[in-house]
Amino acid sequence: MSPGELLAVVVRDGVTESVHTGHLVVAAPDGAVLVRRGRPEDQYFPRSSLKPLQALAMLRCGLDLPPEHLALACASHSGEEVHVAAVRAVLTGAGLTEAALQNTPDLPLDAGAARRWQEAGNGASAVTQNCSGKHAAMLATCMVNGWETAGYLAVDHPLQQAVRGCVAELTGEAGGPVSVDGCGAPLFSCSLTGLARAFARLATAAEGTVEARVADAMRSHPELVGGTGRDVTAAMRAVPGLLAKDGAEGVYAAATSDGGATAFKVADGGSRPRPVVLGAALRRAGVDAAATAAWSAVPVLGHGAPVGEVLAWDDPRVPGHPG
Fold this sequence. Notes:
single chain; Beta-lactamase; two-stranded antiparallel sheet; alpha+beta; Asparaginase; 20% strand; 12 strands; Asparaginase_II
């Protein structure tokens, strides 16, 4: 992968301390490219930004979940008590227990939740790992269809083949590299351009379709898609109609209710610049700056006090910016 182009800089007291490069596309509702940086047409692993498409495949296979549980199926949740309870509810509704989960055990992402979990005498667990909502929904989909659950993570399992087809359809691409995600599920690649296209299709889907069910569930329950203090949750709360999903290794995808869309990949895989880059991309897509101001600001601290901030590539305060 090439390093791409500048996406963000870390400025401390007027001095550029670090630089984040990467690849990004911002598209208008009609699909016209508004911003292109790096090589968004190349193939990337979208990581957890793929989860809304995986959830769509499950609905197409007959899964029927209430909106809050569907939002959790699309989530990289923080492992807070509300998240764990919902995962357990999905499993119980399918006649299963936590023992059926095959995602990689981990502690909750949320520091407070992790502390409480460990104070209760628990260690790393599949149910608290951030992908457990998706895995519970995958198992429930298998139960609906009479598919065996023991091998639900195999790439040739009927469920994963349905996911592959759904990804190809919505992105408009097929045949890219396939890997295994951190949670153990098959991971299908696509371009950032294709990922943005897929999110636009979900965000503008007609009422009553399964595509709209996915988008509406995430928009209605952003606290389940991420969690306390998470920028993906704050962004969907602040921007009316926004559909957004973060992913590991510096990936993000989002679409507005009119079909404007963006997807990007930070080349170094870091998460620090993601909210800043997302905020800038959404503003280029026509979102009011007031709706992005609070959650997209990332301060740089010195002895606990702000001494700078992370700035997007197009910010006129970036040292050396052409103005």
